[in-house]
## 1
Amino acid sequence: MFRDRTWSSRNKDGRLRIPYYEDKTLECVAVPILKGKPLLLAAGPYSFVSKWTWPPEQDPVSLDMEEPVGNEYVHSLAVGTLTGRAVVAAGNECGLLAVWDLQTDELLYRIERAHSGPISALAVSNWFGSGEIISAGAGYVRVWSASLTPMFDINIEQPVSGLVALSEQRLIVATDRGLIMITARDTGRRTNRSGSDTSH
């Protein structure tokens, strides 16, 4: 039902040009396949995600994070499935986490201060059966349930630049010192959470 694909540009300068987005600074891009049709998701300033069908020949749908300030950068995107829904998650530099239904464009969840600082990376996993969001803050990773309730933290003690959720409850964490492989069973680095982030 849902998978990712990467396209290579055929332009002479090696760049993929997206109509209507030439004057924006891209921070992150995701390219899911939904019901056999590719989508292009791109984000940068102003706390919204632009969604195009492929090829991007029409104006995009704007998925708004409803950020009060309105000019905060989106630093991370992830696509996957939560409770049977194809979703996209976005995190911005103020720690705001938002999740939309990719078919209806409905904003499903919006959590202010999901992290006390920028959300540097996101992933969608299926470790516990119904889907989870995994987000990265300053030196730690937070696992959220499919209903965006915080489940536990994993202390990384290094800045995180990327996340890749694998099967068998494994997670690849990219840091400035290299890659770290951790598992959901790594209880030695878990901290149970019952609310929003206040300790980081």
Note: The two ends are 37 Å apart (CA to CA).
## 2
Amino acid sequence: MTPFWLADPLSPVQGPGIDERAGVPGRYLPGMAHQDPATIVARMQADLTVAMKARDRAAVTALRTGMAAIANAEAPPAATASAAVAGQLVEHARLELTSADVDRILRHEIDDRRDTIATIEQHDRIEEADALRSEIGVLERYIS
């Protein structure tokens, strides 16, 4: 199965900073290495929609876990909540992440998958290792 981002060179996956002339989504134009974190997450969300329609399980898993890791990092520490609101649903201001923070989070997700691959290959679970390699390929498109 062809990965969704290679199936159609003019797919909506191509967004700001993508070299559309190359026909390869995820290839950045010079000077676009440090994108706004909101732009990165928006690209991931748009790519998730395309991956879901294409039924690309590896891409969907990678994008969902990557976006969840970013969302978790934006959450304020629990210690900042006052005792009066503990145990209640209250909106808190999200932390502002930099592009370096998002890059670090995604690199951690990639490293975690590489560690898992090393472990599961010892047990001859090649198919799971290949699925994780596909996820790594998806996540690598969003790091600078």
Note: Residues 1-33 have pLDDT under 50 and may be disordered.
